[in-house]
Predict the structure.
Amino acid sequence: MSYTQEIYQLVAAKNPHEPEFCQAVKEVLDSIEPAIAAKEQKYREVALLERLVEPERTVSFRVPWVDDNNVVHVNKGYRVQFSSVIGPFKGGLRFHPSVNQSILKFLGFEQIFKNSLTGQPIGGGKGGSDFDPKGKSDREVMTFCQSFMTELFKYIGADRDVPAGDIGVGGREIGYLYGQYKRLTGQYEGVLTGKGLTFGGSLVRMEATGFGLIYMLEELMNHRGEQLAGKCAVVSGSGNVAIYAAAKAEAKGMKVIAMSDSNGYVYDPQGIDINVIKEIKEVRRGRIKEYAAQIDRAEYVEGKSIWNLPCEIALPCATQNELTLSDMQALYTNGCRVVAEGANMPTTREATDYAISKGIVFMPGKAANAGGVATSALEMAQNSMRFNWTFKEVDERLQQIMASIYQKTADAAMRYGSPDNYVLGANIAGFEKIAEAMLAQGIC
Ligand code: NDP
Ligand code: 2IT
């Protein structure tokens, strides 16, 4: 049995109740197999893969808080510190009722490779809670964030572990978390990224994941001699990533005909007016169906897959496993030829394999959504320098980073004889740097 298959069996046996984690590990191990083959003996001697699939540390804690009606609630809090081999643990916090250890381990594991691809000195981690910010007052969210940080602050620090946002954690939550960290430690340091612009945040961080996704898409299309302008896209989700992906897509002359939330999607044949979505989601914290109530020509659809809509480019930007095999088949049948993942692991393994087998250009999240964490690392750099770059400076760096991620991914795919397999390319390019650092640092 190959070393990678052996390790997968070990992971599956040790983590039987963690399907998302096992899924993420399997995808990586399957695709790095050709890169392992040549160095198998060396890697085996130091149990490199055994160490890579086990987090350095996972902390889980109780988060008690009191709501506006004086009712006490208890949530679970976690931080998975997966790998610090190339830098301090780095990765977002997710607040969503579905959060559990499996989800956070899959996200933390993927983050190691994504962060490696950015070329910046950041390790991999992820954290969060099963707390649901939806429907809560600002005061309740603040109370929760303060309680969460009262435990978390013991484990993080600007050179140790630097959390940021993810699903359910945006500027509001990061502000409350930062305030509590400062109060507990007395340190004004860049311990979280995605901070407000008045207290150490970086320009472009809010837009970065969505913008980065479109920069990657542009890179991809240009290398194929195609343009973004005039292309029709479907974007799932309507949160931070989806909004700024749609905004940049529109700025590049594309037409985004549909967006969604967990209840349904809106279809606008003339192209979604992103300012209306921003107002609904960022200001009112409302539901996507309000778009159709406001815009006559738009239609709201509940209970059907957004991927049934004909489009040329699909950009899943909501959550894991939201794009299944039947969705991918529908996309292909309807003429879609490019899929780039704004979310983390939004495409199931079967759907990914189908896409690649059909020649759909498929750019995985580790490469395509790395613009968010890359800009977080730029925020860390600015905090260390006690200096702020302009919007243009950060945006240009982001574009350069996305172009270099494309190049590393395409080069690795080419080197291993699968020039169109960007899943293989991204996983191998991310892995090579990690493996080299692990070998150099000894058994730890
Ligand atoms: P947000 O919380 O801002 O938005 C999430 C969006 O996805 C919402 O529209 C939400 O709808 C929708 N959604 C969530 N769960 C589901 C579900 N089960 N089915 C359908 N829709 C769902 O999160 P982000 O935009 O920050 O994150 C989106 C994805 O991008 C995640 O996979 C995240 O890990 C990834 N990502 C985020 C980065 C960042 O910088 N924020 C960086 C890189 C990746 P609803 O409001 O109904 O819940
Ligand atoms: O999945 C991700 O890369 C993020 N949620 C962003 C992480 C970060 O540290 O900015």
Notes: Residues 391-415 form the longest helix (25 residues).
